[in-house]
Design brief:
One of its GO terms (molecular function) is single-stranded DNA binding. InterPro entries: NA-bd_OB-fold, RADX. Pfam families: RADX. It comes from Haliaeetus albicilla. Strands 1, 2, 3, 4, 5, 6, 7 and 8 form an eight-stranded mixed β-sheet that branches. The protein has a five-stranded mixed beta barrel with strand order 9-11-12-14-13. A hairpin with a 7-residue loop joins strand 11 (184-193) and strand 12 (201-206). The protein has two domains: 6-136, OB fold (Dihydrolipoamide Acetyltransferase, E2P) (Beta Barrel); 148-305, Nucleic acid-binding proteins (OB fold (Dihydrolipoamide Acetyltransferase, E2P)). Helices cover 12% and strands 33% of the residues. With 306 residues, it is mainly beta. The protein has helices at 6-12, 67-71, 148-151, 211-214, 267-277, 281-286, and strands at 22-29, 33-34, 46-54, 57-64, 80-84, 87-90, 107-115, 123-127, 159-169, 173-176, 184-193, 201-206, 222-232, 242-246, 252-253, 289-290. The mean pLDDT is 91. It has six helices and 16 strands.
Length: 306
């Protein structure tokens, strides 16, 4: 009955302790972060960011501790939430920010919504999509899909979404997070084609919080990667190495996971599906590769350049 908006929250949050319920749609979802340390005795040291929006704009929402195992997998991009008894805090200044699909959307960057088990105990409700009413004015999820033929013209660090047919997937590899640290990043290389270029998308896929998807990427699957960043070699030969890498807000989907995802309505996704219908599966199968060592970006041909 009595709802507030993100815009009203930004204007009035300092003068209030209790806030009216919020109705928002999730537009972006970060990977799950574990911040436990041996000396600190915490039961569930987890945290995850979401970017949520209503008709007034977009704001960060932070899920803390034991709410993460309970809610992280249920709250997807596109999910509509009713939030009651939440806290408002000033924004953490160093977190990564996804690039919104709608560049006109207002971003409230000074504060964030904090969801906790206590102080106050947050109540989260998921509203099924068929019960969402147009008069609530919630924004749709928008994407920035690109084709392989468009990739060569994009600048370094540009944010985009891609869909392609997997032709190569490498083994999982590890890289140290810090030079002498104990922690590793897990990643694998993949190639995907979309019929718009002779070249594939070269994708550096870090393990996001979707192990069930990351472990099952294989040739001939339709792969969707969102919030990818363009990496291009800015040195002497800029065209030689251009690839895409995951960001903190990347989501990865493979065949079997696409149903009901908001991107299925996107024009470029529909064009890709039309293209796949013109392809012979047997011909594509012959060109696929799995596993092996994949040195990339490739070292120069001679040691002097190296």
């Amino acid at each position: 009955s009595k709802l507030t908006s993100l815009g009203q929250l930004e204007m009035t949050w300092r003068s209030r302790v209790h806030f009216h319920p919020l109705l928002v749609r999730v537009l972006h979802k970060s990977r799950l972060r574990y911040y436990g340390k041996p000396e600190k005795k915490m039961d569930m040291p987890y945290q995850a960011y979401f970017e949520v929006a209503d008709g007034s704009g977009m704001m960060s929402m932070v899920l803390w501790n034991s709410l993460c195992p309970e809610w992280y997998n249920s709250v997807k991009v596109g999910t509509v939430l009713l939030l009651e008894q939440y806290a408002i805090k000033t924004s953490y200044p160093f977190k990564t920010l996804p690039t919104p699909g709608d560049s006109q959307m207002k971003r409230f960057a000074t504060i964030e919504i904090s969801l906790n088990v206590r102080d106050p105990p947050t109540k989260i409700s998921i509203i099924p999509e068929e019960m969402v009413k147009p008069e609530w004015g919630l924004p749709e999820v928008k994407y920035r899909f690109i084709t392989r033929s468009e990739l060569d013209d994009l600048p370094n660090n540009h944010s985009c979404d891609v869909i392609g047919l997997v032709t190569f997937v490498g083994r999982a590899e590890r890289a140290r997070k810090r030079e002498h640290g104990e922690d590793f990043w897990l990643y694998r290389w993949a190639h995907a084609i979309d019929g718009t270029s002779d070249q594939p998308f070269i994708l550096e896929l870090f393990a996001t919080s979707q192990p069930d998807v990351f472990e099952h990427i294989h040739p001939m699957t339709y792969l969707v990667c969102t919030q990818m960043r363009v990496v291009r070699d800015l040195t002497d030969n800029p065209s030689s190495t251009i690839y895409l890498t995951t960001s903190n807000e990347s989501q990865i989907f493979i065949t079997g996971w696409h149903k009901g995802q908001p991107y299925t309505k996107d024009t470029k996704v529909k064009n890709f599906i039309q293209w796949t219908k013109t392809q012979s599966e047997a011909d594509q199968m012959k060109k696929t590769v799995i596993g092996g060592y994949y040195p990339f970006p490739r070292p120069p041909n001679n040691f002097l350049k190296y």
